[in-house]
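=== Structure Prediction Worksheet ===
Name of assembly: unnamed complex
Input type: mixed (protein and possibly other molecules)
Chain count: two
Listed entries:
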Amino acid sequence: MGRILDLPAAGAMAVLDPDRIKDDFPILKRLIRGKRLIYLDNAATTQKPESVIKALRFYYENQNANVHRGLHTLAEEATAAFEATRRKVAEFVGGVKPEEIIYTRNATEAINLVAYSWGRANIKRGDRIVLTKMEHHANLVPWIVLAKATGAELEYIPFDSQGYLDLSRVNSLITANTKLVAATHMSNVLGTINPVEELIEIAHSKGALALIDGAQAMPHMPVDIKSLGADFYVFSAHKMLGPTGVGILYGKEAILDSMEPFNFGGEMINEVRYDYADWADLPHKFEAGTPNIAGAIGFGPALGYLANLGMPAVRDHEIELTGYALEKLAALDSIRIFGPTEPADRGGAVSFVDKNIHAHDLATVLDSYGIAIRAGHHCAMPLTKALGVVGTARASFYIYNTRDDIDVLIEGLKSARRYFGYE
Amino acid sequence: MNDSLDALYRDIIMDHFKYPRGTAKLTDPDIGNEGKNPTCGDEIQVAVKLDGEMVEDIFVGCKGCAISVASASMLSEIIKGKSVPEVKHIASIIKAMLKGEELKEQIDLGDLEALRGVKNFPVRIKCALLAWTTLIEGLEAYENRRRASVITTE
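=== Predicted Assembly ===
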């Protein structure tokens, strides 16, 4: 460990300095309507440090070529850089094999890949797929479609009023005919960090596989896929400082080996005749066509940046900031907060509503102060409905956010009430 | 206090938002339709009672932001007493105005003039359009039903 990414030594507890970190992000110097940008939409996508932007530029200016087929210098260098990121990812997620890391377009495509390739071959009428009631559409719609196509049944683990999964129901919901448990590691709406290790263990004890949607977890906390024991784990580069257009599917080698490709075409073949084709080895079997080469290469320095800070320090910073935000928001009488109130049980995505002002109107007013938040159902319509609201406002934090940012948010929320004449 | 906001949330819009018109339910409507804005989850119900070709009464029930509620409220005021073709004509002009298109003709839009500022907030155009697209869908379904019943009786 620590060889490729040059991770800080174990036990070295660093504390983040978000004000210094801000300097590494060119976009954070931008003014919005004359005000300093306060970026609090990190659960949607994060901003990119200089090093990532430079890597993209360096690639296009010096190494641009297609990967895995050219025999010239550019192709060799591009392929080496593209594959170097794969090894960095494999190490970052807890030291898995690089062949178990599949590049996709995004986390959504990674789940679709599993739903089509593994799902169509292994899910039959009468089988059960167990999800949670707090899934993002990405980890919901592919399974609805698969269940419809195969005649499988879907069951959902409910959550309580605090946003915690009801674990007392898990054992009865995950039955012997359950083939897959698919759950989010951290809710993008409630912020809840789910006990996925326990879910995976129960799934395995019933003979089911477990897929974990880590789009919100991997960027924000130390995650060791191997010790979790997940069969599939998906996440996205752009939510962790990397470029858009790169998702990661981790799958256990034996399972990926047993699966048919999802896309067919160039780069994924071993031999092709006019009436025959067979597939390349992992990971290329699942990577048909020209991939997002620049994006993958740009993801390398993003992982390096996070590894250098140390994921425990990233997590500590967010616990501190989330605690502060929850305290400040709770002090506003008009605001109702969703999800766990204990910062240690949740990530830094905080959803709330004002009792009088619609989330869209809040977002517009806050934007006039340079504050970027998300408003709506956050691609989790059934969840929003279960909360009994039309939509919520969501502030989500990352390494460059400060207490000062949250103070500006709180002032913005107060101004919104004055502006709309409620105070 | 904030010029860019004032261009969107004009006083007249805030008045319609806080005191929305057309919210009394109709007992026996001729036209009914529900609309949703999938990007934000806003929901609207529209019902129209006709007297011949004329809109006798209208109900709009909107769960949404200030812009969508105000737009629905204004809609209920302007279409009352208008004929179905007139309503469709007004709706097409409002849609063009909200999208920032050049208007081919000028009509008296009354309070709806206040929605002109919405075009400068591209993400909010859908909010203002919700009531109008839901009404037009309802009208078209009504006309199709009527045409179909004419054909079957012939």
